[in-house]
Amino acid sequence: MPPLVLVVEDETILAEAIATYLERHGYATAMAPSGEEGVRFTEETSPDVAVVDIRLPGIDGLEVLRRIRDVSPSTEVIMMTAHASVASAVEAMRRGALDYLNKPLDLEELRVVVDKALAHQRIQRELSYLKRRDAAVGHLSGIIGDSAPIRTLRHQIEQIAALDSPEGGPGPTVLILGETGVGKELVARALHHLSPRSAGPFVEINCAAIPATLLEAELFGYERGAYTDARNAKPGLFEAAEGGTLFLDEIGHMDLALQVKLLKVIEEKSVRRIGGLRPKTINARIIGATNRDLEAAIREGAFRADLYYRIKVLTLEVPPLRARGADITLLAWHFLDRFGRQYARPPKELTPDAEALLLRYPWPGNVRELAHVMERIALLHPSPFVKAEDLGLSGGKAAMPVIVDAAGTVVVDFTTGGIVLDEVERQLIEAALEASGWNRTVAAQRLGMSKETLRYRMEKYRLRPPG
User: Fold this and answer.
1) Measured distance CA(444)–CA(437) in Å, rounded
2) What contacts 24+ positions apart, CB below 8 Å, involve 107-112?
3) 398: pLDDT confidence band, cut at 50, 70 and 90?
4) Are residue 148 and residue 280 in the same domain, yes or no?
5) In the chain, how many domains are there?
6) pLDDT score of 298
7) Which ranges of 98-225 would DSSP assign to H, the alpha helix?
8) Whether residue 166 sits in one domain with residue 278
């Protein structure tokens, strides 16, 4: 459906010329010869853009502008007049007009301004959606569950969020620990939205997804000429998060050289752009999150001990899904209902045997994996009832039907059901470690992988020596 432009103009010939020109360029148009009719039309249809003459019979254009902003805040208003003055232009912009054009109109210029108004409207709608989404997922109600670990986590979030104040500086750093897929970002957002910083920005970045040199530029920003492609200065994310929260996801995978600079920012509460001469004081709370065993990473020389002790001032550990008991079925029903409504699919119901399998299954991918399973069921399952075999999961914690014969060939007995590849890998690595007395060099040799690959897999599955 084309965008609708309302033309409020008492000169019929001009109004028709504007409407004809815009229609030729793909817009739908409507005309109103008076301010009263323009306001009435806006109340009934909420046009995307209104082009309003400032001099009209009856109420004038400035009053029309005020009333349109009242009855349809999303409508962008462009004022036009043959009697331009600085005072009238300033007053129109103060009342919420997007732009101000002089008569005689240049129709091409008008089309450019209408395009700008529509682009501005799209941005405002996106921002409004993002704010609503952030508010919805940011509160504790977004952390679904009633298990003891989740009740404890909610209480800890409330306590830690209340400790911060934007007037008092950045506040203490927070470290969120947990396996992949448990919802660490959800916890970070809840901390932000429950804190006095909730009106400020929540800025996030995944430290493992960006090369070290680019990550430094993103975090610290740079001055013009700092390097070859730096044609303009750019503020970094520390500055962008001013008065709010900076969330450093996967902080455990940050480059060692960058860890030194992060430690300096936390301790000095200031940041200096790449190529800059003066440090800038910052007021942003820093929250880090990782699924990595940071103490093991310190022993291996992959993470700085001084940074670790600095960021773990306040620590939250998000429990894995398998430790949350009945929360698993509660979340399954929640996701099934949410995706059903999102994709306009018929409602579906989990049978008792399906719920029992959900409770038995180890969920190596945690809540993220459960959400993906329920999304697939909502989209593709034809029956209103979801049985255990429909879930596409293995039989839970029972032994995996995987055998390695004498020749080293892997044989999988799929007649007993499916397998979960991550769980097979986890069990194989754990068995190799136990057989080698947790000697990583020997275990890596037995598994046919490098010691570094084994270390990564141990972090992924949070495998640690007993005791």
Assistant:
1) 12
2) 107/17, 107/18, 107/21, 110/18, 110/21, 110/22, 110/51, 110/78, 110/80, 111/21, 111/22, 111/25
3) very low
4) yes
5) 4
6) 94
7) 107-138, 148-161, 184-194, 212-220
8) yes
